[in-house]
Structure formats: structure tokens, C-alpha cells
């Protein structure tokens, strides 16, 4: 236990406090059992450590942060740790990289049942597939908080030191001028927006400062999910992992038209139903976004109407050739909207339908209203614009939703 406390103190000292994400302030940290979920690199560990540093003194032994991939767990169980921590007055236990501990969900369930009224537990992990699998053991016990990469608003704060409030979608659509005037008064948003689309989503770019290393890190993360997690957690045939990587590459360089499963089957050398199964796994792992024209009635093995990479940075990292700018725009729009809204494929009526109400068309500055003429609550979100013009709004405004 002393070794764990020493590591806790070391993490405490090294944790930066100059920038704290707003999502951290919106979490109910008093929940008896809580999970921070999100892709590798979005800052979950930092969020946990910053909370500890904000609310506990360095000498306070009622709190403990530890990583479950440490040497301690080679000879000790989570139950051992919880029991020892409780005996010395422990009240708030933070367990990072929980997915690296075998059968973690069963032991967390037992710890929760034993110490529910006396100890708060926060778990975190980068394996979304593993955490989702653990939901079955922790159903009705664990409150999940999904942590995303940086929004464009957060990018401006983290990377450029410019702070703006967040807006709801309703506020942006009803009064886009207020935000557009404020942003343009402090910076030239189009230049920074292009940077964000390429390397602003994952906070760790601040440490790398090199797009080559940054993209390699993203690519390595995707490869780990496909090579290790899909076979281990989802029982995917190891012989198909190279084909899955080929499928991801095909999708990263595709123009976002209607999905042709037959063509994807030929290009990736995978059977139709196998492709649909793998696409669903890749969406659960936050590698892809699958869009349907009727989300609530979409069957489990129904083909998606449109497929996009999870975020534009991943799109740039995984593409083997120059990316299509239309794909970049749509990827950004869906990524930002999907954090708090239902996004469906719009078919012939715009690119997307949001919350069953707003029709959205995405394009360049010269995009016209032809496809959405006479449709109520319809908007064009256009790239290369600094200010709105009627219902034609700058695309980058969506980056202020969180």
C-alpha cells in the first residue's frame, strides 16, 4: 500500500492545473460508483487527477489514485486493495486503466456491494469495448460519463489561450451572430479551424508538437483496437484483422455517399454480414460513426446509410491518400453534434436530420439551398465563412456545443 501511496503523491505533484475542462465540472463526483469512458488520449486520467488535486490535500490519505496496469496488481487483487484502503480510512478510490485488470467488472461489483455506503469509486479505461462488456455486471450500479476529445471551443482554449462559453444548438441556430461576432472579435476562426480539423481533437498533441508523431499515435491506437481488442473481447477471427484495417482505410478515403455494402465486401474481401458485424464493433470502439435514415427502427444487422470516421483527426491519420474535404466537413459536423444530439442520415432532404427536427446541409461557402428549399427548420453549415448569412451559418459554429 505504501508503494501505491507514493505513486499517488507523485501523480498529484505532476498534474497540471492551468487548464481544466468544463466536462470535469459537470460530473457528479459524489456518485457511489462512476465510470469515465472514452477513447485513449482524450484526457480521462488528467480529469481524475485534477479533481483530486482540487478537492484533497496532498497529505490526505482518504483518497487514492492508482493505475490498474501497475506491478502491484500482479500479486494483489482489486478486492485486496479496497479492503486495505478501507481499513486505513479510505473513502474515495480512483482506479485508472481498469480494462487492463482481468475480470475487473466482477470485482468492482463486489467492492461496490461491500462498501457502497462508505466508499466512492471512480473507474476509468480506454477500452470502450471492455467497459461496455462490463456494463452487464454493473447494471444499475454504475453511472457512466463519456469523455470526448476536444471541441473546437476547447481547442481554442487549450492551444491558443482564447476562452469562449459553450452554446446549445438551439442558441446557435436562433442567434448565430452573437457568437460569430465574439469569436471574430478575438481571432480569425478559419485559420484555427483548419488546424483543429487536422490535429486539435486529442489533447496529447500539446506534448508531441509534431503531426507525424501525432498521426502515428492515433494509427497505433486504432491498430491496437483491431489487432488486440476485437479478437480478445469480440471474438473476431484474427485472420480478419488485416481485412478490417483495409476496410477502415477504404472508408477514410471515401466520399460520403450512400453506403454500398456489396462494393465494400469486394474491396475488403469480407462477407456482407461479417462487414455489418465489424462495422458495429468499430462504432462501439469510437472509430466510426454509423448513420441511419431511421435510427429507432434500424435493425441490428441493417446496413447503415452513411459511414464516417469518428473525428477528422482520425480521418487524416488513417487515410492513405489526400482526404476529401467534403468528408472532413461531414465528419466534423457529425462528431460535434452527436455528443448530445441524435443525428440521422437525411437522404434526399439534406445531409443530416438532427433530433428529428433540424435539417442540416453541409458544404463549402458556395453551397446553395437547392436540396433543402421549403423545408422548415433547415440550415446550411458552410465552410470558409466567418459570419452567418440568413440560414447559412459558418460550419465552425458547431465547435462550441461543448
Characterise the protein shown here.
The structure is a single chain. The protein is an alpha/beta fold. The chain folds into 2 domains: 2-146, Rossmann fold (3-Layer(aba) Sandwich), CATH 3.40.50.300; 153-400, no CATH class. Helices cover 45% and strands 13% of the residues. The chain has 17 helices and 12 strands. Strands 2-3-4-1-5 form a 5-stranded parallel β-sheet. The protein has a 5-stranded mixed β-sheet with strand order 8-9-10-11-12, with helices on one face. A two-stranded antiparallel sheet has the order 6-7. Strand 2 (63-67), helix 4 (78-87) and strand 3 form a beta-alpha-beta unit. Helix 5 crosses helix 6, helix 10 (189-199) packs across helix 16 (312-318) and helix 12 crosses helix 16. The longest helix is centred in the middle third of the chain and has 24 residues, at 211-234. It is globular and about 70 Å long. The two termini are 39 Å apart.
Amino acid at each position: 500500500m505504501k508503494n501505491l501511496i507514493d505513486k499517488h503523491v507523485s501523480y498529484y505533484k505532476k498534474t497540471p492545473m492551468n487548464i481544466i475542462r468544463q466536462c470535469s465540472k459537470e460530473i457528479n463526483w459524489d456518485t457511489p460508483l462512476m465510470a469515465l469512458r472514452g477513447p485513449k488520449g482524450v484526457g480521462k486520467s488528467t480529469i481524475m487527477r485534477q479533481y483530486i488535486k482540487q478537492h484533497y490535500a496532498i497529505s490526505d490519505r482518504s483518497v487514492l489514485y492508482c493505475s490498474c496496469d501497475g506491478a502491484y496488481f500482479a500479486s494483489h487483487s482489486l478486492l485486496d486493495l479496497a479492503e486495505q484502503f478501507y481499513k486505513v480510512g479510505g473513502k474515495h478510490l480512483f482506479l485508472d486503466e481498469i480494462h487492463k485488470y482481468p475480470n475487473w467488472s466482477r470485482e468492482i461489483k463486489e467492492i461496490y456491494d461491500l462498501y457502497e455506503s462508505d466508499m466512492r469509486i471512480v473507474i476509468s479505461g480506454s477500452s470502450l469495448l471492455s467497459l461496455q462488456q462490463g456494463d452487464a455486471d454493473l447494471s444499475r450500479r454504475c453511472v457512466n460519463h463519456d469523455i470526448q476529445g476536444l471541441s473546437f471551443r476547447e481547442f481554442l482554449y487549450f492551444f491558443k489561450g482564447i476562452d469562449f462559453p459553450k452554446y446549445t444548438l438551439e442558441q446557435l441556430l436562433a442567434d448565430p451572430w452573437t457568437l460569430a461576432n465574439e469569436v471574430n472579435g478575438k481571432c480569425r476562426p478559419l485559420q484555427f479551424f483548419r488546424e483543429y480539423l487536422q490535429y486539435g481533437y486529442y489533447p496529447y498533441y500539446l506534448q508531441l508538437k509534431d503531426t507525424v508523431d501525432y498521426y502515428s499515435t492515433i494509427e497505433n491506437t486504432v491498430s491496437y483496437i483491431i489487432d488486440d481488442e476485437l479478437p480478445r473481447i469480440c471474438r473476431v477471427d484474427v485472420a480478419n484483422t488485416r481485412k478490417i484495417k483495409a476496410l477502415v482505410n477504404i472508408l477514410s478515403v471515401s466520399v460520403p455517399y450512400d453506403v454500398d455494402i456489396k462494393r465494400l465486401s469486394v474491396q475488403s474481401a469480407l462477407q456482407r454480414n461479417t462487414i455489418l458485424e465489424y462495422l458495429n464493433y468499430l462504432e462501439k470502439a469510437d472509430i466510426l460513426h454509423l448513420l441511419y435514415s431511421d435510427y429507432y427502427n434500424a435493425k441490428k444487422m441493417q446496413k447503415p446509410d452513411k459511414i464516417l470516421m469518428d473525428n477528422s483527426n482520425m480521418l487524416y491519420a488513417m487515410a492513405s491518400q489526400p482526404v476529401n474535404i467534403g468528408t472532413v466537413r461531414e465528419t466534423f459536423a457529425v462528431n460535434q453534434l452527436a455528443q448530445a444530439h441524435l443525428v440521422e442520415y437525411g437522404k434526399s432532404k439534406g445531409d443530416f436530420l438532427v433530433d428529428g427536427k433540424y435539417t442540416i446541409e453541409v458544404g463549402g461557402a458556395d453551397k446553395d439551398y437547392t436540396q433543402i428549399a421549403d423545408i422548415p427548420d433547415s440550415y446550411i453549415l458552410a465552410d470558409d465563412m466567418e459570419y452567418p448569412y440568413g440560414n447559412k451559418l459558418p460550419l465552425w459554429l458547431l465547435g462550441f456545443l461543448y
